[in-house]
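Final report, results section. Input specification for complex C-07:
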Amino acid sequence: MNCEVCQLKELEVEHFEIREVLRCILHTIVFHRALGLVRPKDVDLELFEITYVQCGDVELEKKIDEKIDHFISWVEKHPNKKSQICLSFYEVKSKQPFWFANKTERLYWEQWYVNLNVTQHPKHHSSKSHHTKVVVDPGESAIEERSSRRAMVEASLREVLFQIIKFVNEKKDHVPPISEGVIYFPYEITIPSSSDSAFGMDMIKRMLHSGHPTMLS
Amino acid sequence: MEMDRESGKLEQIVSQFRSKILHVILDSRVPSLHRQQQESLSLSRVRKTDKWFNLVLGDRPPALENLNFSLRNLLDPMVIDIILIRHGSCSSSVDNLYAPSAAAAGPSTETVIERWVVQYDCPRVFATPSGADAAVFYKKIYKKCILLLRSLYSQMRLLPAYRICRQLSLLSQTYNFDLVYKVSSFSHPFSREEEDGMKEYSFTPVEALPGCLCVSVTYRATLSDFNLEPLVSLPPKIITDYVGSPTTDPMRSFPSSKTGAHATSFPSTGLRPPSSAPFQRPHSWSSGFHRGFPPTKTQSLAGSPPAYCTSRKPYDITSPPTDLYGNRIQNHRVSTLQQATAYDEYKLSPPFSTSASPSTPTYLSGANPLLTRHCSETAPVTIPLTGRSTRYLSSNSSDPNRHSLPPLSPRSSKHDASSQESPSGIRSYRKIEGLRAGESPSGLSNLYSAPKVVRDSKDDSGRFSGLLSSSGSPRIGFSRSSSRLSFQDDIDDCEFSCPFDVDDVDVSDSSSRNTESKRASEFTAQSNLVGKKSQDAAVGILVHMLRTAPPLRQDSSCYSTHSLKTEYDGGAGVASGFFLPRKTADALEELNSYREMKDLLLSKSATQAVRKEGKK
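Structure output:
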């Protein structure tokens, strides 16, 4: 089975926008890969005029929120850096080397890379310019600039969502068959670890584990 | 046999696929269905139809079943048009309050903002796989259909039309636009102009050998140039001190008004005149008292001219005359008409006939009947300002009641035989006229049949306005009692036809005119005169009757029996001009309705009428 990779368009976001943007993107991807019986749940973003769809699974929502929290913590420690979150779907295959007992391995069949460029210092800066309502001298130009920036982020996010839909439509053959009683495929969310190099190593390890991404099944 | 079974499976998948797509589209583009879907999704029950493609959508709209039936030929495309209807320029703009009704109404424009096309491209004769391959084959098709539906569901929420649907599905706001849909098996191509602003997106076809399922959408990339805006409307407000309410002290003085308008006394025997201090009435229709001053915000907001609605739609006497009356009626009528048309079309033309219209489009409104109808909903009563009111006053054919009375009754009538707006109102009005002249008394029953319906709407103002609109101004009604000729004189001469929208009354002498004894002597001396003087008497008698009348909530029969007897006895001597041959029951009914106008009769209108006639 080949592993399809989708690199999503990079989004330039501010710290306070990370949570909403990531929730939107990750849930949208999972919704398209939750091929079991789902009761779709429309969620409106607060910062943008965008509605995305969740598959309605509470546990999934919790796990995604946890990962987002970890990512935000990482961003706070590594400000003003480009970062990447990887959402991978895999199949569990049992491997039975003759000298070992049953061993399972993950066969990744799809990987989504969410690319974010967090532009501001997480706490210090954002508390000054965004979280506090009283700004020293906002001026009309600052407000206009903020709203135009917000519109740009919204447009970019919308583009990313369209990109997801397009990818889902174009690539269908690699999706495994649906198992009975399973709502969504097993997934894994990988966030940057404490160091960039470690993050890169994690990705390489995964690639070695699952085989080359271009390997056909 | 096996081939039939296999082809049946494929047909079932394709059929359910089309139904599901239609359901997804309608749920996110039809405001009422969208709201229902959000509510039904919260239910835990999973229906059989929900299990198809593993997507729980809730209850299927009833229209879907009919549409499925009409579009059951799977080989024909299913075209779903989402149409944006923009209503005229009847907006919340203050300028529109004073624009002529025709201009303020404006035509509706319809624009196709989305077109979804679902088709199964398949040769007519085909062979389906069989055996073990068939199960794998259908599973793959099914999986791909699921994926397509997921992406369709997401995409529905990203296109511009979704926000419009969301706005319309909210009950808290009304808009100058509406969304409807049309489903058919063919589509008229877009004009070049229409195509310019549209984008196209095609979902990757699902190979369902021997054919493939194709879904595509052509949509407007932006709707910002449509000037879609909410209509500013007054929030519903319970007026606790409404004048016409039985529990309100009719003689209460109102708080002083900044506008400087003055209450005028109602010249009648036995009445304590109200204070002549300026007052402000917290009602939309009270702004007539403040004519000459800029309307307050509430007044202006309330003033979107009802002409658009009233002139275009006949009123249904059975509909409750609420603030949303015109809106409801209009929606009801439109949606009913459209639905009737749609279902008739189902019956009349088969879905896939080879006639000129190969498949009669099913045109259904998904509009929320309570929403989205424009200006009529925004309390279409405004009391015109000085310059404008003159026009109203001078014209009998205009409908001053419309602008000076509570906008609740559909029978805010034009006093014009050619008007189609409020036929019942006009009929009843004219029948009152006939009654006074000794004709059939049935007119009054019409007059009160409307208010009875209004009464059911549990709204005093509705009752009040129902009365007014059906009978015209009380003053005119009173004048009718004298003679038709005098009525004509009144209409021709006076600058207004409703006592409520006049504020140019000279109130400086109100204190002197409020002297009861003077008024009584006037009544006594002139009681036998027909025309101007009898009007005073009529007004006086009515006020007296209304004052002593029991509350409206009592049994009307008892009320009418007792009160009219009492009042008639007391007023017979002075009201002979008023009590022209007519039945007691008619007078009682009239009394019931006029009671609600009691306090307004105490104010300027009567005084002005007398004054004007005095000047003449």
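Chain B touches chain A at residues 38, 41, 46, 50-51, 54-57, 139, 143-144, 146-148, 150-151, 153-155, 157-158, 162-163, 166, 203-204 (CB under 8 Å). Chain B has 25 helices and nine strands. This concludes the modelling results for the funded period.
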